[in-house]
Amino acid sequence: MSEQRKVVLATRNKGKVKEFNKLFAQLGWEGISLDEFEGVPEVVEDGDTFEANAVKKAREISTYLGMPAVGDDSGLEVDALGGRPGVYSARYAGEGATDEANWRKLLGELADVPAEKRTARFRCVLALVEPGRDPIIAAGFCEGVIAEEPRGTNGFGYDPVFYLPQQGKSMAELSPEEKNQISHRAMAMQNLLSALKSNS
Ligand SMILES: O=P(O)(O)OP(=O)(O)OP(=O)(O)OC[C@H]1O[C@@H](n2cnc3c(O)ncnc32)[C@H](O)[C@@H]1O
Ligand SMILES: [Mg+2]
């Protein structure tokens, strides 16, 4: 996979697409958005794990288009909530919830939780599927703390309420380049690359 590589991004999330475009460019890969194709079926995310959903996204899209595809299933694990919302992060405040509704619900649930108990991590599992081959899977995470209030306007999802003590900023206050150096998605991409190298 070292040559110029066209890989379909098996996601409907525009924030993820932007991040992947930059991460892929660093590898000389070309990420192709699902918007380029018509009639692509919705993937039903009914797995209980990030891995199951990431593989399902990549496999269904790769099979449908006959091209390599990367699926990303990701979410937020909050320690004070026993790891919730986890794989249900996208629908935490209900099916089709907005990003803001999700993080507002989270701040509400953590209203009485003191600062030292607000630890959390973003997790990302990536699956690369080439037609007719077994998936290659890689994971990454990023540790932080759930803030009391939102800060910043970059990024997407839970970024405004995910505070990074080392940076002294929320994830939504980082530039896209800074986020791509430390994020769960960036770590998973690095691990995917290593897995590909040891596979070939
Ligand atoms: O399934 P696809 O089409 O890829 O798009 P999605 O937005 O539904 O993605 P997921 O099912 O993987 O759900 C991920 C959830 O975790 C959140 N999330 C994932 N990565 C994030 C990041 O880098 N920053 C903030 N929130 C993130 C995101 O907002 C969703 O609520
Ligand atoms: Mg989803």
Automatic annotation (TrEMBL):
<dbReference type="GO" id="GO:0017111">
    <property type="term" value="F:ribonucleoside triphosphate phosphatase activity"/>
</dbReference>
<feature type="binding site">
    <location>
        <position position="74"/>
    </location>
    <ligand>
        <name>substrate</name>
    </ligand>
</feature>
<feature type="binding site">
    <location>
        <position position="73"/>
    </location>
    <ligand>
        <name>Mg(2+)</name>
    </ligand>
</feature>
<dbReference type="InterPro" id="IPR029001">
    <property type="entry name" value="ITPase-like_fam"/>
</dbReference>
<feature type="binding site">
    <location>
        <begin position="184"/>
        <end position="185"/>
    </location>
    <ligand>
        <name>substrate</name>
    </ligand>
</feature>
<dbReference type="GO" id="GO:0036222">
    <property type="term" value="F:XTP diphosphatase activity"/>
</dbReference>
<feature type="active site" description="Proton acceptor">
    <location>
        <position position="73"/>
    </location>
</feature>
<dbReference type="Pfam" id="PF01725">
    <property type="entry name" value="Ham1p_like"/>
</dbReference>
<keyword id="KW-0460">Magnesium</keyword>
<dbReference type="GO" id="GO:0009117">
    <property type="term" value="P:nucleotide metabolic process"/>
</dbReference>
<comment type="subunit">
    <text>Homodimer.</text>
</comment>
<dbReference type="GO" id="GO:0000166">
    <property type="term" value="F:nucleotide binding"/>
</dbReference>
<dbReference type="GO" id="GO:0046872">
    <property type="term" value="F:metal ion binding"/>
</dbReference>
<dbReference type="GO" id="GO:0005829">
    <property type="term" value="C:cytosol"/>
</dbReference>
<feature type="binding site">
    <location>
        <position position="179"/>
    </location>
    <ligand>
        <name>substrate</name>
    </ligand>
</feature>
<comment type="similarity">
    <text>Belongs to the HAM1 NTPase family.</text>
</comment>
<keyword id="KW-0479">Metal-binding</keyword>
<feature type="binding site">
    <location>
        <begin position="11"/>
        <end position="16"/>
    </location>
    <ligand>
        <name>substrate</name>
    </ligand>
</feature>
<dbReference type="GO" id="GO:0009146">
    <property type="term" value="P:purine nucleoside triphosphate catabolic process"/>
</dbReference>
<protein>
    <recommendedName>
        <fullName>dITP/XTP pyrophosphatase</fullName>
        <ecNumber>3.6.1.66</ecNumber>
    </recommendedName>
</protein>
<dbReference type="InterPro" id="IPR002637">
    <property type="entry name" value="RdgB/HAM1"/>
</dbReference>
<dbReference type="GO" id="GO:0035870">
    <property type="term" value="F:dITP diphosphatase activity"/>
</dbReference>
<comment type="function">
    <text>Pyrophosphatase that catalyzes the hydrolysis of nucleoside triphosphates to their monophosphate derivatives, with a high preference for the non-canonical purine nucleotides XTP (xanthosine triphosphate), dITP (deoxyinosine triphosphate) and ITP. Seems to function as a house-cleaning enzyme that removes non-canonical purine nucleotides from the nucleotide pool, thus preventing their incorporation into DNA/RNA and avoiding chromosomal lesions.</text>
</comment>
<dbReference type="InterPro" id="IPR020922">
    <property type="entry name" value="dITP/XTP_pyrophosphatase"/>
</dbReference>
<keyword id="KW-0547">Nucleotide-binding</keyword>
<keyword id="KW-0546">Nucleotide metabolism</keyword>
<dbReference type="GO" id="GO:0036220">
    <property type="term" value="F:ITP diphosphatase activity"/>
</dbReference>
<feature type="binding site">
    <location>
        <begin position="156"/>
        <end position="159"/>
    </location>
    <ligand>
        <name>substrate</name>
    </ligand>
</feature>
<keyword id="KW-0378">Hydrolase</keyword>
